[in-house]
TrEMBL record:
Species the sequence originates in: Terribacillus halophilus
CDD domains: Glyco_transf_WecG_TagA
Enzyme Commission code(s) on record: 2.4.1.187
Keywords, in A-Z order: Cell wall biogenesis/degradation, Glycosyltransferase, Teichoic acid biosynthesis, Transferase
Pfam families attached to this UniProt entry: Glyco_tran_WecG
Function according to Swiss-Prot or TrEMBL: Catalyzes the conversion of GlcNAc-PP-undecaprenol into ManNAc-GlcNAc-PP-undecaprenol, the first committed lipid intermediate in the de novo synthesis of teichoic acid.
Protein origin, superkingdom: Bacteria
Pathway participation: Cell wall biogenesis; teichoic acid biosynthesis
InterPro entries listed in its UniProt record: TagA_TarA (IPR034714), WecG_TagA_CpsF (IPR004629)
Reaction catalyzed: UDP-N-acetyl-alpha-D-mannosamine + N-acetyl-alpha-D-glucosaminyl-di-trans,octa-cis-undecaprenyl diphosphate = N-acetyl-beta-D-mannosaminyl-(1->4)-N-acetyl-alpha-D-glucosaminyl di-trans,octa-cis-undecaprenyl diphosphate + UDP + H(+)
Coiled-coil parts of chain: none
Lineage, uppermost ranks: Bacteria, Bacillati, Bacillota, Bacilli, Bacillales
HAMAP family according to UniProt: TagA_TarA
Record's protein name: N-acetylglucosaminyldiphosphoundecaprenol N-acetyl-beta-D-mannosaminyltransferase
Length: 243
């Protein structure tokens, strides 16, 4: 990947591709050739976590693509003088991949969230994409020492797309440590997306997202997350002082 396509933000190399470029020039061809692909959709909190946790940093940096999911990352790239054109959210990327899977008879695996949330999320995918193949699913509440056996069970179903919704840092650590057990597949950590699919959580309204206020919407809905928002502010502060 050339330097022009990357911007380093606090030692995390972000891809500067638009969603369209990422899908059409990279992900679809890699899916078609059966190349294993690991995508991290990183927001400021993930960058800060990587700064504080060397193992997690390694898990993130071992990804094939680190995508700017978070208005703060896009703003930081502009401050650093190497601007990212657009924010590419894990949420939108997952739905693009699901549409592609439906059209091309690909199979998907859904790992994460509570059992009933996982079931409802998979049912929602089934009804929204009737042609899609579900390779399998598993809830996300198991001990770390079961990681390899859960991964082996998933790998045996030979999925083309593996969505891991266990929140960070768990999901990236899981993917980085276990993707070698799969012969192919696009791996992506998708955080709370199964909760949204299951109707447990609402995504911020489009207008808020456009105004870069998705973080504020989440703070209002889940005030216990205030510490994470502080991390996002610390991220902006650190970018500014580095500049
Ligand atoms: N989760 C899980 N296993 C765990 C902890 C969390 O499967 O050990 C799930 C949780 O039920 C939720 C998602 O992971 O569906 C975390 O969502 P969150 O919005 O916290 O994601 P983040 O923004 O932290 O990536």
């Amino acid at each position: 990947m050339s330097n022009q396509e990357i911007v380093e933000i606090m030692d995390i190399p972000f891809n500067k591709l638009t969603q369209k470029e990422l899908l059409q020039q990279h992900l679809y061809p890699r899916i078609n050739s059966g190349e294993r692909t690991y995508i991290v959709t990183a927001n400021p909190e993930i960058v800060m976590q990587a700064r504080e946790d060397a193992t997690y940093k390694q898990s993130v940096k071992s990804a094939d693509y680190i995508i700017p999911d978070g208005a703060g990352v896009v703003i930081a790239s502009k401050i650093l003088g190497n601007p990212i054109e657009e924010r590419v959210t894990g949420f939108d990327l997952m739905f693009k991949l699901l549409s592609y899977a439906e059209k091309h008879n690909l199979s998907c695996y859904f790992l994460g969230a509570k059992q009933e949330v996982n079931d409802r999320a998979v049912n929602r995918v089934r009804s929204q994409y009737p042609g899609i193949r579900i390779a399998g699913s598993h809830h996300g509440y198991f001990n770390k020492d079961k990681d390899a056996s859960v991964a082996e069970e998933a790998a045996a179903s030979k999925p083309d797309l593996i969505f891991v919704a266990m929140g960070f840092p768990r999901q990236e650590n899981f993917i980085a440590a276990n993707q070698h057990l799969f012969e192919k597949g696009v791996f992506m950590g998708v955080g709370g997306v199964f909760d949204i699919l299951a109707g447990e959580m609402k995504r911020a309204p489009r207008a808020w997202i456009k105004l870069n206020l998705e973080w504020l919407y989440r703070l209002i809905k889940q005030p216990f997350r205030w510490k994470r928002i502080l991390k996002a502010f610390e991220f902006m502060f650190r970018v500014l002082i580095r500049k």
